[in-house]
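dumping the sequnces here before i forget
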Amino acid sequence: MFRGKLKLPDKARRGFPDRLGSLVAGLEGKEDDMGAYDSLFESGEELDIILPNGLDLAKERDYDFESDHCDDDSVGGVCERLRDREDTMGQKGSDKHGSVSVLEAIVADEKRSDLEYEFSQKEINLEKLRRIAGTGLPDGGGLRATAWKILLGYLPTSRDLWEKELSDSRQKYTKLKEELLSSPTELTKPPDDASTSDENAEDDVAGPLKRREISHEDHPLSDGKASAWRQYFQHTEIAEQIDRDLQRTHPEMKFFSGDSSFSKKIKEAMRNILLLFAKLNPAIRYVQGMNEVLAPIIYVFSTDTDEDNAVCSNFCFSVLKVFVFLKANHGSGIQKPLCHSQTFFSFCIFFIIFYSVEN
Amino acid sequence: MSYAYLFKYIIIGDTGVGKSCLLLQFTDKRFQPVHDLTIGVEFGARMITMDNKPIKLQIWDTAGQESFRSITRSYYRGAAGALLVYDITRRETFNHLASWLEDARQHANANMTIVLIGNKCDLAHRRAVSTEEGEQFAKEHGLIFMEASAKTAQNVEEAFIKTAATIYKKIQDGVFDVSNESYGIKVGYGGIPGPSGGRDGSSSQAGGCCS
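..and the predicted 3d for all of it:
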């Protein structure tokens, strides 16, 4: 299923046939396009013709690009290609199925090599990457995952720092998980003998229960704000809600639903991430829709894992940053951006498409 | 399509009680066991006939989560009817009814018709709220009450149509100033005799009552 399982971006080669062509280009035109995609899926695996409809975003970027381009020779080449691309987009009305697909495939191919080149640089040119990504990213080889990571600011632009950054944030995440997601019994438990007495307590009905010291604040009935128990119970509510919502996160996709151990693992990972985010951001907590935003991120990134549990640790921070970004940009809490950010939701459309094709 | 009246509804209640499923059952006559969660507000519409007049129900389906309350609150205004939904298998959704009602009373117009719906009544074996409790709550707060199941479609039509009937009766009784759209009622072309009215037979009689 995960053809793009690669350890490092520079190993990304063209061993993966780009069956999807330039599907990526359909970002903004989701509603109109769905019908077209449906019929494409029915026709089988060879999805060579993709209609680059509704590229509002892409066009905008292209125009931007036109205005400030060609100071730099290397950028000039990209510029040419983008203009070609725009031309092909112009043709789409009259000639949807002919030469456009070929040209699109070429553009996607070139984009792929651009990206691979860019990722192989010691210092990644963020501006350039943004431009390439602005018109959609090619599939396979983990290019999208890597690009998203850089664009989200999760990975630094300097390649040499990647490995360290990754292991650092994985450690950080594991630590946070230990601190915030374990039950207060474990937290308040004195390390040694008390733990065994706890376990024995239930079996040993005949004898008197062993008592242990408990701080004034930290007991299950405490109302104190600092009580770990109080917080724990508060968070069970959130956890229950998250669990319920995860049940209805793309139920039509095996990746997220069903009883397979894989989808269970994915759900568990999403649960941890969402719960952790809620705990770290008490003012926002969990808002319905976060699951929808997280879903494509986790989907895209799990095509780029290099170790089994990386799904959990690797991406927490990316998604956190997305939310911080959304919040910062709208100032009025998370609701607004979640309702209005079409671009964000079109990511979901993306990965529905990818999923259908990959399976 | 022309209509004599358009009634605007709003569906409210805790998350996961089946608001969107009720709407889907009413508008599409189908059930989706796992419905996508509603973010913000969604929307559905269906024509019904009442007293031989075509009436269009425009239904706003809201997100149930607390975080979206500030958004859903702005949809109360201009709603003629509200479906307040709880899940008979989850006690807490019943316990929260009072706060929903408070919201509705505060933000909706006073003549809004509110129907209380205990959803998922097909799951009787998991029932956590008795029918009597539901009835009692509705009685105390002056609501119409019924238990329904979006899955089996039991009482779904009835709930929407009964709401419409109540609103319709209120119009007949002159409770609403129908020219004022803030009551969630709009008089359509099908309701007044005119060039477009000839297409449906009901229009000729509809004219008299709503002028």
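The first strand of chain B starts at residue 5 and ends at 13.
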